Amino acid sequence: MKRDRQIAMPAAIGLAATLALAAATLAQPSSTQAALLAQPEPTATIRAQQTATAQAVATAATQPPPPLPTPTPAAPGGSLVTPENRGFSEARLQQIHVPPGFWVNVFAAGLGNTRMMVAAPNGAVYVTRREQGDVLALTDTDGDGRADEIKTAAAGLPLVHGIALKGGQIYLATDTKVYVGDIQDDKTLGGLHTIIDDLPTGGQHANRTLAFGPDGMLYITVGSTCNACRETDQESATILRARPDGSERAMFAKGLRNTIGFGWHPGSGQLWGMDHGSDWRGDDQPPEELNLIQPGGDYGWPYCYGARQADPFFSQEPPGTTKAAYCATTKPPVLTYQAHSAPIGMAFYMGAQFPPEYQGDAFVAMRGSWNRSQPTGYKVVRVRFQNGWPAGYEDFMSGFLIEDGAAHFGRLAGVAVTPYGSLLVSDDANGVIYRVSWAGR
């Protein structure tokens, strides 16, 4: 299905970037946000009644702060530091840290480059393998918490990454195409066919992700082709939206360098996504961003980062204006996170297994840094929400970074909640899928 070019962009010019270190200034919450965050977590009986109010307050709280001054650039910075992979073994389970009352087991291992996952009603967990170019169906047939049936559900899909479930069908995304197929009785995908065949060329960020929104529309993330540049394709560095058959495709939001993980809060229905900051700007900036993604929103990349901060190391000005003036019109993040942590999968918790305080919170897999002198990430974090609004981060599943940061035994990518309420986490470096369950205190 060819694209409907509904939003025009200025003509692209040559790529240029001057890389250097800058001090990042985090967004300060407005008084409306502060008041919202101070409210207690609603009980289950009144959560539904508060949804409308939370939405209204959250919308008001997104009014952007005044633009910040551009700092004086320092020298270009950045470190190429990649911890060594020590591999996986069952003994490593003892090194994984989760909150009291939770326990971790291996759902499946030896799987290769496991990335995004969905748990289907037929009991199978479908996982994409980007490097193998296929999709596996994993089933725990005896209920012991470990997959004992593993089969190839679809193959011949180079760079397959995104996956979404709708009814009895599964949607898949490669770098330039979106497919849909029917779930068969044997758990394979039948009738797989292309509905979109002209997504922008991937370049540096070729991992597309998919999800269906509350409006029934298909949302597609398209990362930038570069670290920092003016794109030549208007659909790069965006989130797109289309009908389930791939038609009426249009830009939903732009200025998003690489938003792989995204989802809708189950109470407010608002769309949230984690965006990657640019590389080679020092250890601590730009931050990773948690954005409230709104229709038509511009989130600033490549000219801005953080709290509408002009990037002093990107040499080009926006067409017809300055970076400072342009950044003042963009949408700032609601929360930021340590630079270079590399957020990948994101899932809101709506299961019945975890304690009630986890309802409506999000889990984000931080795959881990390669461009920071002291490695960071290599964990799953919990994003705590209060009344539909993000209140902060905390570690949920960690311990993968070992030997004082010189090594790791897992780079986490996908997260998915099963129908039974367990959390699945994929490690794309060692081919492991972990299962996190609540055992009680």
Summary?
The chain has helices at residues 31-38, 44-61, 323-327; strands at residues 84-85, 102-108, 114-119, 124-129, 134-139, 149-154, 162-166, 169-173, 178-183, 189-196, 209-212, 218-222, 238-242, 250-254, 259-264, 271-275, 288-292, 297-298, 304-305, 309-310, 335-337, 343-348, 362-366, 379-386, 389-397, 401-402, 407-408, 412-417, 423-427, 432-438. By secondary structure, the chain is mainly β.
Describe the structure in your own words:
There is one protein chain. This protein has 441 residues and is mainly beta. The chain is built from three helices and 30 strands. A five-stranded mixed sheet has the order 11-12-13-14-18, with no helix packed on it. Strands 2-30-29-28 form a four-stranded antiparallel sheet, with no helix packed on it. A hairpin with a 2-residue loop joins strand 24 (379-386) and strand 25. Helix 1 runs antiparallel to helix 2 (44-61). The longest helix has 18 residues, at 44-61. The protein is globular and about 65 Å long. The relative contact order is 0.19. Residues 2-75 have low confidence and may be disordered.
